[in-house]
Amino acid sequence: NAGVTQTPKFQVLKTGQSMTLQCAQDMNHNSMYWYRQDPGMGLRLIYYSASEGTTDKGEVPNGYNVSRLNKREFSLRLESAAPSQTSVYFCASSAGLAGGLEQFFGPGTRLTVL
Amino acid sequence: GDSVTQMEGPVTLSEEAFLTINCTYTATGYPSLFWYVQYPGEGLQLLLKATKADDKGSNKGFEATYRKETTSFHLEKGSVQVSDSAVYFCALTHNTNAGKSTFGDGTTLTVKP
Predict the structure, then answer these.
(1) Does residue A97 sit at the B interface (CB-CB below 8 Å)?
(2) Helix, strand or coil for residue A62?
(3) pLDDT band at B97 (very low <50, low <70, confident <90, very high)
(4) Between residues 38 and 77 of chain A, which touch chain B (CB distance below 8 Å)?
């Protein structure tokens, strides 16, 4: 049981390049989330998916897009990376109301945009 | 909107000292409250939780009580160890299927031998 997995672990991009961060969970959770973590700012929600087939904007969605490919996978895409998107990105999942609401986090992707 | 305020860090303690990390929240309704811990280079993991007023969450010697009258969920441990050095996040989650959470900014704890 791997929990929540993320790829890649590290990535360096040049301004304007695009990339997709991958996330998968094997706990049969309904809800999935993408956060970014910046020093002194806690975690900020980028996008979330309450269930397969639905996605919604979080607190800081600009510059990002997401796809809930199936119940297991939730990807985050940067179409044209900017230095302001240098951050650590975490994917998380939750069983939702029926399962206790706690979130399970992946190990993170450390992204640097030059 | 919702918000979570944690005491500012960093916090440095000697081993076996008593720990308190304050957390207060602003929210409508009756959210569930959580403490998560993040060790260096890792993602967050659940430390403890409380789902209704006056509930006490506990785990690994840490405790926190859901106080609705003071909108607080302070984290305490009677005797910290070097291995407790980490960043601690307080969070609230509304009781909906989407389960979105609001996190505090985190408090860095360093325990010295």
Answers:
(1) yes
(2) coil
(3) low
(4) 40-43, 45, 48, 50-51, 56, 58
